Amino acid sequence: MFVGTSLTAALGLDPSLGFPARVQAKIDSAGLPFEVVNAGVSGEVSIQARDRVAKWLVKQPFAVLVLETGANDMLQGLSLRALRSNVQAIVDTVRKARPDARIVLAGMEAAPNLGEPYARDFRSIYADVARRDSVALIPFLLEGVAGNPDLNLGDGIHPNERGQRIVAQNVWRVLEPILRAEAAKR
Question: Which CATH number describes the domain made up of 2-185?
């Protein structure tokens, strides 16, 4: 299950071109017994993701939850302390409700205009939670895509079709070994 923002929802594109659908194609090609559920919601901030996971998403069946949140918090200038708390609460909620589920956290980077101290503190949230809770980390979901106009829609924020392919590969590098291990358990 992919929980995320407009990045996960593939804003501006047909969802079949987004990275979750492309990851599904990789899963199918690898012959792995998993079905991707795209639970991306455009505009969602981390507190909304926290509430949605706690109230609804943990009740759905999933073996692995890929969490992408925080970009909208950053764009809206919301508290980094609150973002850290919300990401941690999502991990804690999933661990409590579905102790056998694996969690993959998608790291994000702050916009450069926010300054290095903010960028450092923002980036550390993902690495710290991943390390503290022993969850897999995609270091930066948009690695190789962010800031490249050829790989983003006109808004300069959301990956275009070519950018989505790269994002899918960024996710797959971390997700594939987890899915293979989960499949071996079955």
Answer: 3.40.50.1110
The rounded distance, in Å, linking the Cα atoms of 72 and 70 is 5
pLDDT tens track for 25-55:
999 999 999 999 999 999 999 999 999 999 9
- What is the pTM for the complete model shown? 0.96
Q: Is the dihedral of CA 114, 117, 122, 127 positive or negative?
A: positive
Exposed e or buried b for every residue in 7-22, given b needs 16+ CB within 10 A?
Answer: bbbbbbbeeebbbbbb
Contact 102, 178 (CB under 8 A): yes
Write out the catalytic residue numbers: 6, 155, 158
Burial class (CB in 10 A: 0-12, 13-18, 19+), 61: exposed
What does the alpha-carbon distance between residue 178 and residue 97 come to, in Å, rounded to a whole number? 20
Give CA–CA dist 87/50, Å, rounded. 7
- What are the extents of the domains in the chain? 2-185
